[in-house]
């Protein structure tokens, strides 16, 4: 009798636990449903101003945002700014006005899938397509025969290298590149260490669309904060502006597709690193040495050993992966010293 009584209690307890979990599950379903449809945050006044001062052009049926301003009188120099993942052209806002004082034209673009540009899905995002978008923008602005300076960061570094390859191999639509300045990009797969969330998103197959919907502001701010230096962290407003840019047009839902660029870098390493090591275009690298994605000294040692023609600026030891935001003065000085050297 005692054993039967004990078995009955265990069975009742097990049923009770299952019922409890069922109730929890039923309660969570509507909560998750509500969460997955949280509307994106409103644009801050700063982001609104950035958007309203820009324009759009069409590339293969997609609207691409760009910002183009006329600056220094008496100069014909043009600089095109290529941003990184997962942010946007707004990454350059701290050095925009100073660049305007040096260049006649300062131009920045939101790549397809980023910022205020369209974010189609499903879509096979590629570095090749982004390079073609830059070429299309130059054509749209009627600057095809003008010499342009490229200033790039992170993801934009690889887009710049594809443009460099096309320039040096006389491909149709190539840019006339006057100079190229790179910064903190994973251009060598062997010295590039993507963040855990990036690896999960790019390699999780059918689970990736679920993961992209579960990314929220807290996860994002923690992840992006890890690639800034401890003394150069974004403000709360800056975190929200970055997150707002991602959420605009549901950009969080295409992050897994865009992240295939990491695999593209590996597959096309010979093409892009080869372009970097063989070009005659003036080259410079601005590097924040605290970068966990492209760590010191592995990355910069590899760069200097392979790209012997390039000059290099290593910023203060507390500057990390976003040098143009963490140390805009140091970044700008390094860039202008390079531009004024030839």
From TrEMBL:
Gene Ontology process terms (BP): acylglycerol catabolic process
GO cellular component: endoplasmic reticulum membrane
Lipid bilayer topology: Multi-pass membrane protein
Residue intervals passing through the bilayer: 20-38
Protein name (record): AB hydrolase-1 domain-containing protein
Cellular localization per UniProt: Endoplasmic reticulum membrane
UniProt keyword terms in alphabetical order: Endoplasmic reticulum, Hydrolase, Membrane, Transmembrane, Transmembrane helix
Any GO molecular function: monoacylglycerol lipase activity
Cited Gene3D superfamilies: alpha/beta hydrolase (3.40.50.1820)
AB hydrolase-1 domain segment(s): 78-327
Main location per the UniProt record: endoplasmic reticulum
Family label: Belongs to the AB hydrolase superfamily.
